[in-house]
C-alpha cells in the first residue's frame, strides 16, 4: 500500500466521450460540438481523447481530423476495427495530430468469435497481428483491445496479447464490454495476464468497463490496484446501455484516497463540473441530482445533523471540497452592456470557435437579445446560445421564426407558429392538452414527420427565475433515435426549438457504424 509520500505511478486518463459516449441513444454530436468538448477535455488535461471512429462515416472522419488539427496537448485517438480499411481511415484522420494514436480491436470471447466474427481463434490472432502492423505504418502509439475480454478464456487472452505486443502494440486494453465482471474477478484477470504474458512489463495495461451491473467504476479501480495504468472512461459516465465508467468518479477516487491508490493523474479537477455541464447540454442527457461529484446534490446537506457538522468542520461530512471539482465557478462573464470584443474573447476562453465575422455577428445579436431578457449571463448560457448558432443553414431544414401561445384556465391551450421549412415560410396552429403539446402538434401539422416522441425533459441552465430553460426532445423514426435541444427564457419557445432541432437531425444523413468495445 502506498503512502502520501510514496512515489506514485501516472494513471493515464483515456476519455471516450466523443466515441463510446456518443453511442448513447440520440447522443450524436456535430463536428462543432465535438470540437467544443475536445477543447474542454484538453483544458482539463485529459491524456488521451478518443475522438471517434473514423471509418463510421465521412462526418466521423472529418470530426476526428478536425480534433486532431485543433488539440495540441492531449493525444488524439481514433478507434478502428481490425481490418485494413478501418485502420487506414483512422491513420489518415489522426495524421495532423501533434500526438496521434490508433486503437484497434477484435473480439476474443468464444461467443463473439463463433457467432459474430465466424472466425477461428487462429484467424483472430492472425488478424490482430496484421492490424497492429497496419496501424504502425501511421504511428508508434498503437493500442489493441480484446473485445469482450471479460468473457474470454484466459489462455487465449494471453496468447493474443503476446502476439500483438510482439507486433508493436504499446497499450493493451482488457475491456469488460458487456459489464459482466465483478471487481475481484476482473482484478484477478488483470493480474494473471500481466504475470503470464511475455513483454507485459513493456506495455501499458488499460481497462474499459461498462456499467450494466453498476460496477464500471468499481471494476476499473480494482484493476488499477492490480496494475492497470490506463482507465478508459467518459464524462458523466455517458455511453450505450447503462454507460461507461465515470471519469469524474475515477479521478476523484484516486485523488481523495491517495492513501490507497499508488497512482496519480494530471487532471485539472476544477474543470470537471464545466465539462460535465457542457457534455450534458450538448448531448441532451441531464445529470441526475444525486450523481457523485457532478450532481446538483453532490455537496448538499439537508439533515440538520449533517448541516451542523459541516458548519463546525467541513470534513465531518465532506471528503472533497466542492470548489476542487469546479463547483462555485458559475462565473458571471457578460451583461447587456458588454461589447463584441468582450463577447468574442469570452467565447475563445471557453474554447468556442467562431469561424467567420458573419457567425460572430449573428451570435452577438442573439446574445444581446438574451441579455435584454436575462440580467446575468453565465458561461452555461453562452454554451447554450452557441449550440443554437452551430446549426448551419444546409442542415437547418426547419427553423422557428415566430410564435404565439395562449393558455387560460378552463380554455384549450393553443399555439400559432411561423416556421421556415426548406427556406419557405409556413404558418400553422393547433390545440393541445397544454401549450407545449399544442406547439408540437402545430409543428407536426406542417412537418408530418411521422416520428415518435420518446422523451421530453426540461432543465434550468443556471439558477434564478430568469434562467434559460433547456429542453431535450428525443424522437424516433425508422429505427433512428435523435435528441434535439433548445434553450430560451420562455420554456415553450425552448420546447419548440428542441423539437425542430430533433427534426433537423432526423432529416440529415446519419449513416454510420457503431462498434462496441
Automatic annotation (TrEMBL):
Q: What are the BP-aspect GO terms?
A: L-leucine biosynthetic process
PROSITE patterns, alphabetized = AIPM_HOMOCIT_SYNTH_1, AIPM_HOMOCIT_SYNTH_2, PYR_CT
Its required cofactor(s), as named, are:
Mn(2+)
Q: Where does Mn(2+) bind?
A: 20, 208, 210, 244
**Metal-binding as UniProt keyword:** yes
Q: What class of enzyme is it?
A: transferase
PANTHER family associated with the record: 2-ISOPROPYLMALATE SYNTHASE 1, CHLOROPLASTIC-RELATED, HOMOCITRATE SYNTHASE-RELATED
Assembly description = Homodimer.
Task: Tell me the function of this protein.
Answer: Catalyzes the condensation of the acetyl group of acetyl-CoA with 3-methyl-2-oxobutanoate (2-ketoisovalerate) to form 3-carboxy-3-hydroxy-4-methylpentanoate (2-isopropylmalate).
Q: Which family does it belong to?
A: Belongs to the alpha-IPM synthase/homocitrate synthase family. LeuA type 1 subfamily.
Protein known as: 2-isopropylmalate synthase
Task: Say which species the protein is native to.
Answer: Azoarcus indigens
Q: Which gene encodes it?
A: leuA
Amino acid at each position: 500500500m502506498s503512502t502520501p509520500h510514496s512515489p506514485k505511478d501516472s494513471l493515464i486518463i483515456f476519455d471516450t466521450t466523443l466515441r463510446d459516449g456518443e453511442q448513447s441513444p440520440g447522443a450524436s454530436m456535430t463536428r462543432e460540438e465535438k470540437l467544443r468538448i475536445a477543447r474542454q477535455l484538453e483544458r482539463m488535461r485529459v491524456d488521451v481523447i478518443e475522438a471517434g471512429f473514423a471509418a463510421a462515416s465521412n462526418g466521423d472522419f472529418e470530426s476526428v481530423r478536425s480534433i486532431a488539427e485543433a488539440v495540441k496537448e492531449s493525444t488524439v485517438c481514433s478507434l478502428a476495427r481490425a481490418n485494413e480499411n478501418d485502420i487506414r481511415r483512422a491513420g489518415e484522420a489522426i495524421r495532423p495530430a501533434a500526438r496521434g494514436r490508433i486503437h484497434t480491436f477484435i473480439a476474443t470471447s468464444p461467443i463473439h468469435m463463433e457467432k459474430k466474427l465466424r472466425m477461428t481463434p487462429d484467424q483472430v490472432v492472425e488478424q490482430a497481428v496484421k492490424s497492429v502492423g497496419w496501424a504502425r505504418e501511421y504511428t508508434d502509439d498503437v493500442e489493441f483491445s480484446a473485445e469482450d475480454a471479460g468473457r474470454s478464456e484466459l489462455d487465449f487472452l494471453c496468447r493474443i496479447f503476446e502476439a500483438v505486443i510482439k507486433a508493436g502494440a504499446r497499450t493493451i486494453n482488457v475491456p469488460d464490454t458487456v459489464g459482466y465482471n465483478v471487481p475481484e474477478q476482473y482484478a484477478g484477470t488483470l493480474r494473471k495476464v500481466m504475470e503470464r504474458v511475455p513483454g507485459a512489463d513493456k506495455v501499458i495495461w488499460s481497462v474499459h468497463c461498462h456499467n450494466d451491473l453498476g460496477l464500471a467504476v468499481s471494476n476499473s479501480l480494482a484493476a488499477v490496484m492490480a496494475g492497470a495504468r490506463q482507465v478508459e472512461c467518459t464524462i458523466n459516465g455517458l455511453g450505450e446501455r447503462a454507460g461507461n465508467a465515470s471519469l469524474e468518479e475515477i479521478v476523484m477516487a484516486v485523488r481523495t484516497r491517495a492513501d490507497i491508490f499508488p497512482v496519480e493523474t494530471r487532471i485539472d479537477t476544477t474543470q470537471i463540473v464545466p465539462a460535465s455541464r457542457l457534455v450534458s447540454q450538448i448531448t441532451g442527457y441531464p445529470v441526475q441530482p444525486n450523481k457523485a461529484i457532478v450532481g446538483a446534490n453532490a455537496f448538499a446537506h439537508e439533515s440538520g445533523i449533517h448541516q451542523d457538522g459541516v458548519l463546525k468542520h467541513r470534513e465531518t461530512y465532506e471528503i472533497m471540497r466542492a470548489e476542487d471539482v469546479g463547483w462555485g465557478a458559475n462565473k458571471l462573464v457578460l451583461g447587456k452592456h458588454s461589447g463584441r470584443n468582450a463577447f468574442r474573447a469570452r467565447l475563445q476562453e471557453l474554447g468556442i470557435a467562431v469561424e467567420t465575422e458573419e457567425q460572430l455577428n449573428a451570435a452577438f445579436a442573439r446574445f444581446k437579445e438574451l441579455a435584454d431578457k436575462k440580467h446575468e449571463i453565465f458561461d452555461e448560457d453562452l454554451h447554450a446560445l452557441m449550440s443554437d448558432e452551430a446549426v448551419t443553414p444546409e442542415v437547418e431544414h426547419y427553423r422557428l421564426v415566430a410564435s404565439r401561445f395562449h393558455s387560460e384556465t378552463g380554455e384549450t391551450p393553443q399555439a400559432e407558429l411561423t416556421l421556415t421549412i426548406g427556406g419557405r415560410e409556413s404558418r400553422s396552429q393547433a390545440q393541445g392538452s397544454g401549450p407545449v403539446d399544442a406547439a408540437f402538434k402545430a409543428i407536426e401539422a406542417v412537418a408530418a414527420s411521422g416520428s415518435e416522441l420518446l422523451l421530453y425533459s426540461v432543465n434550468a441552465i443556471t439558477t434564478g427565475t430568469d434562467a434559460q430553460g433547456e429542453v431535450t426532445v428525443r424522437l424516433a423514426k425508422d429505427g433512428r433515435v435523435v435528441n434535439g435541444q433548445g434553450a430560451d427564457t420562455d420554456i415553450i419557445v425552448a420546447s419548440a426549438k428542441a423539437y425542430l432541432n430533433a427534426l433537423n437531425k432526423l432529416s440529415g444523413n446519419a449513416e454510420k457504424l457503431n462498434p462496441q468495445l
